Amino acid sequence: MSGGEQASWVCCQLGARDHYVVPRALHRTGQLAQLVTDAWSAPGTLASSIGSTLSTVFGQRFHPDLSGANVRALSASLIGHEIQWRLQRREGWDLVVGRNEWFQSEGASLLPQRPDGQRTMLFAYSYAAEAFFVEGKRRGWTTVLGQIDPGPEHVLTQKRLAAERPEFGPPPAAPPPGYFDHWRRECDLADRIVVNSEWSRASLLRAGIPERKLATIALPYESDANDAAERAYPSAFSRERPLRVLFVGTASVAKGVADLLLAFEQLADAPVELSIVGERAMDVPDRFQRHLRIRWHGRVDRALVMDHYRASDLLIFPSHSDGFGVTQIEGQAWGLPVVSSRNCGRVVRDGETGWLLDEVSPAAIAAALERAVREPQTLSRFARAARETPASGVQALAEGLRALENE
After folding, report:
1. Where would I find the beta strands (DSSP E) of 106-149?
2. Are 384 and 230 in contact (CB under 8 A)?
3. Could you identify which of 36, 166, 303, 354 might form a hypothetical disulfide with 12, taking C-beta atoms 3.0 to 4.6 angstroms apart as the criterion?
4. Strand 120-125 vs strand 214-216: parallel, antiparallel, or unpaired?
C-alpha cells in the first residue's frame, strides 16, 4: 500500500478499556470503519436506561468522541446474558471466560462486509480476539492484536511472588486450562501484535512470540491536571512536614505493594508517610493495617484520585510486572516525581523526572525513599522536569497504528 493511502480499521472491543482510545484515535483520522463492542450506552437510549439499572458500569459504555462513529453493539444480548450469569452465580475466571466467548461468538457476525472498499485492518484485544481473527483472515484482512498484559509470564510471576511473600496471601486464582492455548491461537492468527511497553515485548519474546510480529506503542494520556501548580518542597522533611508518598492502583503483591510495606519497616523513624489509593488484592498483616504512617484509602472515584496526586510529594510504582502502568503518566502530569520499577512502561527518565529501581525489593525501595528524604531539592528539580514533559497523546497512538499499515 502506498504511503499516502489510508486503510480502513475495524475495532472489536469488549468493555471500555482505556476509554476506547484505539477506536477514538482511528475515528479522529477518519479511518474507523466500525467499532464492534459489547455495549453502547448512548445517552437517552432505551439500552442505556435498562442497562444502567443493572450496573453503573453500563452507563460508562460510551464516549462523546465516538458519537458520530459507526458503532455496532450487543447491548440487548449483554443485558440478557448478564441476568443469566447472575442467576447462574458465575464469577471469577468462569465469568471472564464466559464473557469473552459470548462476545466473540455473537460479535463476529457484526463485522462489516467490505468497509469502504479499502484495505481493512482488524484490531481486537487479547483473550477475546480469536473468532474475529478467524473471520478476518477468511476475508483477507490484516489482523492486529492489542496485548493487554505481559502474557503467561505474568501469571508465573504472581505464583513466584506469592511463594516468596507467604504472609501476604496466596496468588490470584490462575486462569483455567486452555486459557493461554486460546491466546496462542490468537497470536498465530495475528499479523501484528501491539504491546504498550518494552517489558511486555520482552515477556512475549520469552514466551516464544516471533519478534517480527511485535510493535511497541505507548499508551496515550489526556491530562486532568489542568490546575497542576508548581510544587513546594521544604528545605528539610520532618515529623511535622513528612515526605508524602503515594501509591495508586490495585494493592497487590505483583504491583510491589508487599515490598513497599516491608520497606516501611526498614525506614524506622524516617519522616515518611504513605497513602495507598486503590482496592486491595492481597492479605495485609495487621501491623501494616494499624501502621501510624500508612493510610489505606481504598478505591475512590477519579476526582479524589486527582486530589491525592495534588497533595503528594512523590509517586511510587514498584510493580514486578505490568503491561504499562498509566499511573506513572498521571502522576507526572501533576508534576510528581516518580520512583518506578523497570518492569513496566518506561515513563521515568532516571535522574531527571525520578528514579528507576534496579530491583524491586524492600531494601531498594527503602533506599530510594531515604534518598528522597535527604534530597528535597532533587525532588523539586524532578517536579519541574515532570511538569515540562509532554504526555503522549491520542494523535501519537494514531500515527503508531497507521505505521502498521505500511509494514
Report:
1. 120-125, 142-146
2. yes
3. 36
4. unpaired
Cell 531498594: give the residue.
Answer: 364
Q: Helix, strand, or coil here: 222?
A: coil
Q: What is the pLDDT of residues 224-269, one digit of tens each?
A: 665 667 889 999 999 999 999 999 999 999 999 999 999 999 998 8
Task: Check if the beta carbon of residue 145 is closer than 8 Å to that of residue 194.
Answer: yes
Beta strands in 6-99 (DSSP E): 8-13, 32-37, 71-73
103-146 pLDDT per residue, tens: 999 999 999 986 555 789 999 999 999 999 999 999 999 999 99
Q: What is the H or E stretch that residue 297 is in? A: strand 294-298
Mark whether 60 and 205 lie in a shared domain. yes
Reduced to 3 states, what is the DSSP secondary structure of residue 268? coil
CB contact at 8 A, 140 and 23: no
pLDDT at 195: 97
| Grid cell at residue 346 | 518506561
Q: Among candidates 180, 178, 196, 177, which has minimal Cα distance to 188?
A: 180
What CA–CA distance (Å, rounded) separates 252 from 165?
A: 11
Identify whether residues 161 and 304 lie together within a single domain. no
Q: How far apart are CA 371 and CA 358, in angstroms?
A: 14
Domain that holds residue 253: 243-387
> Which residue in 227, 257, 228 sits closest to 245, CA to CA?
257
Q: Which residues contact 116 (CB under 8 A, 6 or more apart)?
A: 8, 33
Residue 231 lies in a domain: no
Alpha-carbon dihedral sign for residues 265, 267, 270, 273 = negative
Query: How many domains are there within the chain?
Result: 2
Q: Do 76 and 185 sit in the same domain of this protein?
A: yes
User: What is the value of pTM for the model shown?
Assistant: 0.91
